[in-house]
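Tutorial handout. Part one gives the primary structure; part two gives the three-dimensional structure as tokens.
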Amino acid sequence: MSLSQSLFTVAVLIALSAFFSMAEISLAASRRLRLRLLADEGDTRSDAVLRMQEQPGNYFTVVQIGQNAIAILGGIVGEGAFSPYFTRVLELWFAASTAATLGFLASFLIITSLFIVFADLIPKRLSMAESEAVALRVVGPMQTCMTLFKPIVWLYSRSTDGIFKLFKLPTQRDERITSDDILAMTEAGARTGMMGQREQQMIANVFELESRTVSSAMTQRDRIAYFLRDDSDEVVRLRIAAEPFSTYPVCDGDIDHVVGYVDAKDLFQRALTNQPISLRDEGLVHKALVVPDRLTLTEVLDQFRQVREDFAIIVNEYSLVVGVVTLNDVMSTVMGDMIDSDDEEQIVRRDANSWLIDGVTPVQDVLRALSLDELPHEEEYETLGGFLMVMLRRVPRRTDSVNWGGYKFEVLDVDSYRIDQVMVSRIDPEAPAPAAASN
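Part two.
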């Protein structure tokens, strides 16, 4: 075989090896979601790739047969093509036996380098960057190869299947997409600029609904504006003027005996038409939805949907009212700062290293603001005030402080045993620096 023929043969073998390398990596790296979208658009090749991913045994068997056979042939052809020429040149300086050995090593090094670069590294990088496009192009030829080598493929596949069964190894990859997978994709999209930071945070908030309890979004007991059933028309009018809300609980004697709720729209309608307002009017007071304080926000949304309500009374295990929650409260948790609120912000950033935080702020919001992963004993509390109580093992007083995670949490104000304001300061330069809010 002449040198030109040998070079042509080596080039063909490198091209074939590159084809099998691309076929291997592209199938493994192709994203099923993208392939399904292409299949829905009518690309039949996508269906073939998806079937290969579900049962990849025969596919990879052909790849390995092709790569190993080509590697052996490449070594044989390359050694025969280049070694004699290198040996003749090296004989000018070395003995014949030494020159033959060095000529073989030089030929081996060149052939190996050519295969590594052109049959392995370049094709695999290309397949990783354009995995779906490459997979669609190679699936047809690979199906032909699987048909041609079917007897050999059957032999190796059955042997491999036997080994997998013997050691009880998995034969199919888990294609289930979890919430962590989706969050990881959205975070990657936000980092690359393909998705806005606010949109990514909203998606993360949606998944938090499953873990956050209703207590993290409710209006606390001491902030509830409510009516007593015996309140006069004048008291009702003064209350709705002083504390304008969309919904008011109606109680019998005290807040722990809720008999229903009244909608502000109904009150305003009667006030504007100069009709008397009586909270004993059964047409005015609606039956209230009552839910336990241990429900998650997702479960509360389900309750709203089932009873077609957007307001609920929250009670604890002793049937005492601990708060109220509306559909808007839950949606505010999802939307975060993407929607405007008339309420005072619970977290106010004073400067690059300090924050003023309300004691009833949910722990998840505190973690997000401070870029922390967790706080100790998180299962024992739901708010920043609860965190301080657990850490101090008593009811906090003004100037009490807790240092944790590179931050100092100092109590600034306490009202009737309830923590109103907490100053949080970053005291450790190595503590995670929260990112500035983006518009």
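Part three, for discussion. Residues 57-90 form the longest helix (34 residues). Confidence is low (pLDDT under 50) at residues 435-439.
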